[in-house]
UniProtKB/TrEMBL annotation:
This is DUF4227 family protein. It comes from Paracerasibacillus soli. It comes from the Bacteria. Pfam families: DUF4227. Keywords: Membrane, Transmembrane, Transmembrane helix. The chain crosses the membrane at residues 6-23.
Length: 65
């Protein structure tokens, strides 16, 4: 009974360590990734800042977004 508990604890500990170092590796990989760079290729601007707030608010209720 105690031997089985020790085996389960060791397996749990090994899985936890593998998971922890896997997360650290992913973090170090994506830490160098620049999310806010300008896109490459034929990008299209989605947000139109010239549209006034009242018009956008009316569209919000009209189309039930």
């Amino acid at each position: 009974m105690i031997f089985d508990s020790i085996k389960v604890f060791i397996i749990f500990l090994a899985c936890t360590i593998v998971f922890y170092f896997g997360l650290r590796a992913m973090h170090s990989e994506y830490e160098q990734f620049h999310r806010y760079d300008h896109p490459d290729g034929p990008a299209v601007k989605v947000f139109n800042s010239e549209e006034d707030f009242l018009n956008r608010f009316q569209l919000f209720f009209r189309f039930e977004e």
